[in-house]
Amino acid sequence: MQTSQHVLFERSEMKDRHLVRKKIREHIADKAKLPILIFPEGTCINNTSVMMFKKGSFEVGGTIHPVAIKYDPRFGDAFWNSTKHSVMTYAFNVLTSWAIVCNVWYLPPMVQEEEEDAVHFANRVKAVIAARGGMSMLPWDGGLKRKKVKESFKEEQQKKYCQIV
């Protein structure tokens, strides 16, 4: 990892977030360095949707080169549903599948527009990726599959539902 200049951090540590942002800005400023590969969702889901992007990737400036990735499940499923299968079962399924087929689309570079904040820029990039991959966009992040839903999020959804009713 040292030879490829990984930037490791603990997402829950605010100090780490600031340090990572600083390191990424320095990396972007050095034109001799290779581009950075970032997965702004932070996790994978079931190949049908694009989840909320973490805004930190979009706060550092620079040009974003979006890539849409979608697995074709006809020959083997690349996704691990940890609530259904153990890691050993998942590994066995992947290793014994006929093939793991993946479609990859390299999309045109995108830059943050003037007066556009990081969240709106992230959502614009996410929309382009979702459209190209034929996936829907989800307004929540992948942490919901591993954690309890925050009460404030539930209350917000309940208020929206009450307004509809």
Automatic annotation (TrEMBL):
Keyword Zinc belongs to the record: no
Matching SUPFAM superfamilies, A to Z?
Answer: Glycerol-3-phosphate (1)-acyltransferase
Alphabetically sorted, this entry's keywords are: Acyltransferase, Endoplasmic reticulum, Lipid biosynthesis, Lipid metabolism, Membrane, Phospholipid biosynthesis, Phospholipid metabolism, Transferase, Transmembrane, Transmembrane helix
GO CC entries: endoplasmic reticulum membrane
What molecular function terms (GO) are annotated for this protein? glycerol-3-phosphate O-acyltransferase activity
Source superkingdom = Eukaryota
Q: What is its main location?
A: endoplasmic reticulum
**Membrane topology annotation:** Multi-pass membrane protein
Against Pfam families, the record matches this protein to: Acyltransferase
Q: Which InterPro entries match?
A: LPCAT1-like, Plipid/glycerol_acylTrfase
What range(s) does the Phospholipid/glycerol acyltransferase domain occupy?
1-70
Q: What is this protein called?
A: GPAT3 acyltransferase
